[in-house]
Structure formats: C-alpha cells, structure tokens
From TrEMBL:
PROSITE patterns: HTH_MERR_2. It comes from the Bacteria. Residues 8-78 form the HTH merR-type domain. This is DNA-binding transcriptional regulator, MerR family. The keyword Signal does not apply. Keywords: DNA-binding, Repressor, Transcription, Transcription regulation. GO terms for molecular function: DNA binding; DNA-binding transcription factor activity. The keyword Repressor applies.
Length: 282
C-alpha cells in the first residue's frame, strides 16, 4: 500500500516560501484568484499545499507581463474565450502604445531640462507691439466699481441698456479698467461702439466719446488669466492720461447679437482660443 504524504503550510509559512505578503494572499482568496488548500472550520486558518506555489509563480509571471488580476483570473480559470497566445499578442500591442507614450514624456522632460523650459509652459500667442491711428468712436457704456467676479453681471446690464435704447452695435465688446493698482476690486467700464449718427436727445446723456489718436496695440490669443503678459508689453509706453482698452475679438460673446436680451456667453468656446486686443492710448 502506497502512502501519499501531502505537505501543507500555514499562511505565514507559505508567505515566506512564495515571497507573497499575507495580506496579498488573503486578498487573492477573497477574489477567488488563489484559494487555500484547506481552511480550518473552527479557527478559519488558511493552509496551502506545495502545488499552490506553482500557481503563485504563474500569477507573478502574468503580473510581470502587465496583466490585471481580473485578466489573470480569467486565464487561470480558463474562462476566457481567447487563448493565451492571443491575449499575449493584445498585451504586447498595448505595451507598445504605452512605450510610445512614455518615450514622448521622456522627450518632453529632456527638453525641459535641456532648454530650462518652465514645467507649466504658458500656451498663448502674442503679437509684437504695433501702432495704429484710431478715429474717435461713440460708445454706450456702464461704469461701476465691482469685484472681478461680478464682471458677467456688469456685461449683462450693458446688454439690457443697449436693448432698452434700441442701439445699433457697430463693434465688439470692450472694457476699460480704471484702477490697475487694485486688480480684485476696481472701477470697471464695459462698452459697445454704436452708430453716433442716430443719437437722439434721450440717448445723448448715456454715451461717451473714446478719443481719436495713436494707440499702441497687442493681439493676444489664449486664456484671459494670462492676459497680463500683453499689458507687460505695453507698460513702458504709458504716458500722462494714458488708458488701456481691451477689445474682445473672438470667444467671449457671439458675433451675431440680434436680441440683446438673449445674448449668452459662449460657454462652449475653448478659452485657450480667446482673442483679445489690448490697446494703450498714447
């Protein structure tokens, strides 16, 4: 009579032999990836036989190839429809894609180190300073001291004013900031150019003239929060009585505004593509 001796190990001993933490072995048991050979019904202690070591080695090998635990479970249980070779081919293709992505990241890091590029590089486009003579224009405007987050409300009131006086808009929305020493709370003026030929006595007190003259200009495309770089381009040209005007060329409001009460900000527009013209009256 042949006697077969089966050696079983406590979970602690098996952890040492297999070089897998006890916590991991318990987790593998909970997800039915690697079940213990015996569980003591009284104590709940787990025991593993020697054959379980080969299963552990297979799990380790598949993990090293990039397979997830769910994929490994499917492979070991034979529940996948595709054979292992096909799964390996698919995994190889995935790794090639990730390799390309990692090489791109490495290349970008090398450029940052080589050229001392800032890690969060500003993604905007800005023109050189240019000069243009601008004729005087008639604008309808609203000027109030506001917090910066109230800008949308001020623009909305301007739309209502344009609608109330049935004005014909000729240009883009513009802003004059009157207190640059206090960027969070300042006197702000928003305006539209209107047709000055149709002014009547009622409207006459509601408009102002932006004077003609030479203006230093910068075209900026990018996030509005980065617009300070445009002002930096112009600040050395400031003289007595200078003032800045922002003209919103594209991105903030629709180009067609037939009904002022229905105008809404272009929330679907990409703010990285906002186009703003900053002008300094010389």
């Amino acid at each position: 009579m042949k006697i077969v001796v089966i050696v079983i190990y406590s979970i602690g001993k098996f952890s040492n032999i297999s070089n897998v933490p006890i916590k991991t072995l318990r987790y593998y048991d909970s997800i039915d990836l690697l079940k213990p050979s015996v569980v003591d019904k009284t104590t709940g202690y787990r025991y593993y036989d020697y054959q379980k070591i080969s299963q552990v080695e297979r799990i380790k090998a598949l993990k090293s190839l990039g397979f997830s635990l769910n994929e490994i479970k499917e492979i070991i249980n034979g529940s996948i429809k595709k054979d292992l070779n096909q799964k390996l081919i698919e995994k190889r293709n995935d790794v090639i894609v990730r390799k390309s992505q990692l090489e791109s990241i490495i290349s970008e890091i090398d450029d940052i180190l080589r050229y001392s590029k800032p890690y969060f590089e500003k993604k905007y486009h800005i023109s050189s300073v240019y000069f243009e003579y601008r004729s005087s224009i008639t604008v309808i405007s609203i000027k109030e001291k506001i917090e910066i987050h109230q800008m949308d409300q001020l623009v909305e009131r301007l739309f209502q004013k344009v609608y109330a006086y049935n004005c014909k808009i000729k240009g883009n929305l513009m802003t004059i900031w009157h207190e640059w020493d206090n960027p969070l709370s300042q006197e702000t003026e928003v305006m539209f150019e209107i047709d000055g030929d149709i002014l009547n006595n009622t409207l006459e007190n509601e408009v102002k003239i932006i004077p003609n003259g030479e203006y230093a200009c910068v075209d900026f495309v990018g996030l509005y929060s980065d617009l300070t770089v445009a002002y930096d381009q112009l600040k050395d040209l400031i003289v007595t009585d200078s003032f800045f005007i922002e003209e919103y060329m594209e991105g903030l409001v629709p180009q067609e505004m037939d009904d002022m009460l229905c105008v809404k900000p272009l929330k679907d527009a990409d703010p990285n593509n906002f186009k703003t013209k900053v002008m300094l009256k010389l």
